[in-house]
Design goal:
Layout lengths: L1 H15 L1 E2 L8 H9 L3 E6 L6 E5 H12 L6 H20 L8 E2 L11 H10 L4 H17 L3 E5 L2 E2 L4 E2 L4 E2 L3 H4 L12 E2 L9 E7 H10 L8 H5 L2 E5 L5 E6 L2 E4 H7 L7 E5 L3 E7 L7 E2 H9 L4 H8 L4 E4 L3
Parallel strand pairs: 2-4, 7-16
Antiparallel strand pairs: 1-2, 2-3, 5-6, 5-17, 8-9, 10-15, 11-12, 12-13, 14-15
Helix pairs in contact: 3-4, 3-6, 4-6, 4-11, 4-12
Bound molecules: zinc ion (ZN).
Length: 324
């Protein structure tokens, strides 16, 4: 029964993506493009112009994965990110997460989407050669075609396939970050990451004036004395060892709120107090829930497959093919 309703649900989503006419293209390069293109399009809201564009589903996935993960990452890590991106999109569509469209191009609302031409310019500026760029593009295209139709489910429903850049040692429970609600497949798991990752350790220094004014502006405190500022300390940790909340004078402020307010890379931090400033010494990058990209790359380097990577980060999930 569950399976039948899940198939129905997924079927509806597939039907919702518009059918597309096969265009007759010319030889060689175009032929490769036809193989890569899917038979469906999605309606993508471009947030800068407000326009909605019909884009090929596989082109959308290519641009999202290339925007969200460095193409130099291991093939199996990119493939895991492809399945995550496809799942994230279909889950959003099944919940009508975008008004008048299937998804938008913003990473703060949906997933990061840059057009391939823009990405190529960015990569060139970063110093990648034409061959490296073609290799990277082809690697992601191959991962999309090879995992065609694959999505991640829990109890026969698409999961909310959240991911982040880096969470050395352990990922975080969803319940510790978002509204306290337990999500059974988003549990804290052990994580191994490359210790040379450039954002593994960062420090964020905030002046007394900025800290105080921001907290007042956002309504967290009415005032903050210099003495209270100099005594800010961690009050409580989450189960996975991240900071849960921080005491500021007589107030408790959620670490996740501080992270977003002051662009601190993660809630895995220690605090150093100074008279005129406060320093957050941070480990990792992102909210820490779901797949860790730096970790996925490390596991892929160690020989794990994309399926093993997905099963590692999302507890008790299935990987199913919605085309079957
Ligand atoms: Zn959106």
């Amino acid at each position: 029964m569950y399976i039948v309703s899940a198939i129905l649900l997924i079927g509806i989503i597939v039907l919702a993506v518009t059918d597309k006419k096969e265009e007759i293209k010319e030889e060689k390069i175009e032929e490769e493009k036809i193989n890569f293109e899917s038979d469906s399009t999605i309606n993508l809201l471009r947030t800068k112009t407000g326009q909605i564009e019909a884009v090929d589903l596989n082109y959308y996935l290519l641009c999202v994965v290339a925007s969200e993960m460095p193409f130099k990452y291991e093939y199996e890590a990119l493939k895991a990110q492809v399945v995550v991106a496809r799942t994230y999109l279909f889950n959003k569509m099944s919940k009508n997460g975008e008004e008048n469209a299937d998804a938008c191009d913003s990473y703060t609302h949906c997933q990061a989407f840059n057009d391939l031409e823009n990405l190529k310019e960015i990569w060139k500026k970063k110093g990648f050669t034409d061959n490296e760029i073609i290799d990277g593009e082809n690697k992601i295209k191959k991962a999309i075609v090879e995992s065609s139709g694959e999505v991640i489910t829990y109890n026969n429903e698409l999961i909310d396939a959240v991911f982040h850049a880096s969470s050395p040692i352990k990922t975080e429970n969803a319940s510790a970050i978002w509204s306290g609600k337990d999500i059974p497949y988003l549990k804290s798991v052990d994580n191994i990451e490359d210790e040379t990752y450039e954002r593994r350790n960062t420090t964020n220094e905030i002046s007394y004036a900025t800290f105080k004014n921001t907290l007042i502006d956002k309504g967290y405190v009415f005032d903050l004395s210099k003495e209270d500022f100099a005594n800010i300390k961690i009050n409580e940790y989450t189960e996975s060892g991240r900071v849960k909340n921080v005491s500021v004078g007589s107030n408790l402020i959620k670490a996740e709120d501080l992270r977003t307010m002051f662009s601190i890379n993660s809630t895995n931090f220690t605090i150093t107090n100074y008279e005129d400033k406060i320093a957050f010494n941070v480990l990792g990058f992102g909210h820490g829930v779901g797949l860790s990209q730096v970790g996925a790359n490390e596991y892929a380097r160690q020989g794990k497959s994309y399926k093993e990577i997905i099963h590692h980060y999302y507890t008790d999930v299935d990987i199913v093919n919605i085309d079957n």
